[in-house]
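Researcher: Final request for today, and then I'll write up notes for the group meeting. The sequence and the SMILES for zinc ion follow.
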Amino acid sequence: MTLTDPAQTLAALIRCPSVTPEDGGALATLGRMLGELGFCNDFVTFSEPGTADVDNLYARLGANGPHLMFAGHTDVVPVGDAKAWSRDPFAADIADGFMYGRGAVDMKGGIACFVSALARLIARRGAPGGSVSLLITGDEEGPSINGTEKLLAYAAGKGERWDAAVVGEPTNPDAMGDMIKIGRRGSLSGTLTVEGVQGHAAYPHLADNPLRGLVTLMDGLLDPPLDAGNARFPPTNLEFTSIDTGNLATNVIPARTTARFNIRFNDIWTAQSLGDELRARLERAARQTRLRPGREPVRYEVAFDPRSSPSFLTRDEALIEALSAAVREATGRTPALSTTGGTSDARFIKDYCPVVEFGLVGQTMHMVDERVALTDLESLTGIYELFLERWFDQRSSAAGAG
Ligand SMILES: [Zn+2]
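Model: Predicted protein-zinc ion complex:
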């Protein structure tokens, strides 16, 4: 295999059927490639009662700083309806300029491009002046319990320290160069329960319809908007995801109703300050009587899911600029710096070092006929190579100047 060719490194990874939590030989295959480049491989398996054991790989090249981490996952989501695929999802077939296979973009493709970028850099000017590590889990598409979070703690426990990290998840919506992710909104979920008095729909004065109270409280939570966003984040958004009353009778006012909601919040808030704001809004709204003239305040309870995730923003401008410049040079396009989308393993890495995310075009991820354009593989390999060069040069000149 020629490691400088991302189509070859990717094909080798796609041919390992690593449907989460199975490894399918993917980490050993990656480890062999990295071994050829001079990396030391540390394979670790993590366990937890109630979840499958998961294999992970921490590989490092070099012994000194500066230290750059590349993070990703070799597990893939199931193929779904195998008959709907036009190609074998684990054969890495090439047709019409695309390589087909589960994981082609999410995210064996990102890993393959990074390996090939390193191989090219090493062939051209030797190993980087510092260290490069790959932190690769087999548990990103699954419950994410025996993966990145534990692998980071394991490596840090052995004394590993990093100056910056790149996550190779697909970040471009339509074309290479669209978007770098430099942070994420936080997520907070809650349940709102309103108590009323059950009764006959024809005698509402004898009952207290909790749905009137709920509408009042929902209005109080939604209006006015929580904020207007800021330079790096869109506005915080609250979405009600379900209203459950479970009442099938048309002539009965129900006793109780429940609504669930999820909030994606920017760095103006923490889960704590946001919860406080929502509680204050509910207190005010509960006293509103427009929909419930002459009534006592709405009786309600609100509960927040303790598994919230915080928002974060990477403030390492040199890291962001090194990657942006590499994207501009390779594609001629200026990438948007975005904090949109769902959560990723960057939420764990940000506790150790500044982290940015950049990978392939995400259009076919998790779909039937997942595939990557060979030109995109070439483009991402070029971007990673330029980025590696810039980041290490910038760090060494900063160290020299200091
Ligand atoms: Zn992924």
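Model: The mean pLDDT is 96. The first helix runs from residue 6 to 14.
Researcher: Thanks, that's everything.
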